[in-house]
Write a structure and sequence with these properties.
This protein has 3 domains: 175 residues, Formiminotransferase-cyclodeaminase, Chain B, domain 1 (2-Layer Sandwich); 163 residues, Alpha-Beta Plaits, CATH 3.30.70; 208 residues, Formiminotetrahydrofolate cyclodeaminase monomer, up-and-down helical bundle (Four Helix Bundle (Hemerythrin (Met), subunit A)), CATH 1.20.120. The protein has 567 residues and is an alpha+beta fold. Strand 11 and strand 12 form a beta hairpin. The longest helix is centred in the last third of the chain and has 42 residues.
Length: 567
Amino acid sequence: MSNQLIECVPNFSEGNDLALIKQITDQIKAVEGATLLDVDPGRATNRTVVTFVGEPVPVLEAAVRAGRKAKELIDMSKHRGEHPRFGAMDVCPLVPVANITMEQTVEYAHQLGRRLGEEAGISGYFYEHAAVREDRRNLAVVRAGEYEGLAEKLKNPAWKTDFGPGTFDPKYGVTAVSARDFLVAYNVNLNTTSTRRANAIAFDVREKGRKKREGNPLTGPVVKDEHGKDVWLPGSLKCVKGIGWFIEEYGVAQISMNLTNISVTPAHVAFDEVCRRAAARGVRVTGSELVGLIPLKAMLDAGRYFLRKQKRSLGVSDKELIKIAVKSMGLDELYPFKPEEKIIEYAIEAKKGRGLQSARSLVDMTVAGFVHETASESKAPGGGSVSAAIGAMGAALSTMVANLSSHKRGWDERWEEFSNWAEKGKACHDELLKLIDDDTDAFNKIMAAFGLPQTTDEEKAAKNQAVQAATKEAIEVPFRVMQVAWESMEVAKAMAEIGNPASVSDAGVAALAARSAVMGAFLNVKINSAGVEDKAWMADIRNRGHEIQEKVAAMEQEILAIVEGKL
């Protein structure tokens, strides 16, 4: 079973003293199993956003150590900054990333709060999903009055802390701990220095909106409801918190937003809405910036969104989608946007030493490098990886024809039709690329299983179980190559029939490559089948494999007939 993975994003009330910040982040790095992904200090806010990930136990340990070090180093009585705050480690949210539910993450948040209180003498509150009281779900409510009002707040029994001693610590303050959805801190840059105008735009878009006023919307008296409470006019974006501020180091005003649920309001939607609202107030958006990290899917969705607005094919590489997103939202206006630092999946791989250009993977090699590695005396990569590579190239050819067709002069109204085919082709070649390394990894697992000790009966049983599991995986991977290569032929056939006539031969080559991938992968399925003890499972795989092979052979002939008819 895959390991549980959570993200922790503590915010520390220090953004200028980099040596101090390093002492805190060194505490995180010292915990085995906690991977420090990002440290983002802000001078104007005097605040540093830190991001690290790992399994729950090491993440909690790293958070406690970081909080303890912040208590030692940061003096809140001397802190000044643009961002709301009430503690040295101001907030410490936990975010479910993989194989863990929000309910489980809440349990870990409560454990974290208890440990901060018991082991570091830190007091604080639980908010959002971890809140133990409904009136404390909203961080803005919990942090109201900020540090300056904290001493009086703690005297009020209604604001008794959820964990820790509960007394006022003038040097540290308090910490807010939560379990929350993935939050994206996102700022949009404006061509103005006016905080008032930036705030007006922020109020236009944030979910909370602004207070309703009689007469003049700026200076008129606030409208009250029947209970005497202020009436609010909601903004246009759900799950968005926002304020306007001036950032002196860049000399511009920004709309600073927290996108609290990017499945409801993603970054690209927030960006476009701010553009629209800013223009209505005579202000122009010049770019934007991400504070911390963002999921890969969010960047890919943004790239597709802006390509769709251009009526361009969406079936392009992830790298190209990210480039479109960055340029469309001006994410590189203030400083270079580095995917390996800003996109969470890439950052994790980079920290593990498996960066985007790492030679660890076969897919990251040059073509020449892959060929030479295959030709070497090592037993892997072998026919399974080569079959997946052939299939990936075939699917890529089909995708190319679809992309070329979507841009063909005179076919403008058909761009979406071909874009859909290109996306199908891209999905196939992306998965086949992954299967290149999966096949070699599966082979290595078999070798490792055969190398296990077998002195005792227990060891023999464990070794046999490991060999059987590894062998099944070594069969399932090439079988999946067969399935995906077969799926890619649907795109090849469509492109032969309706694609750009100038590229019909490429559709034919795609079909030949797909069939070769299927046949080659099936040979690997069969050579690994002899040692499988589960004969019924193996018979089912073989029968399905024969069926795929026959259908692919027939489809290849059908596609080649179409191609030959057009040459």
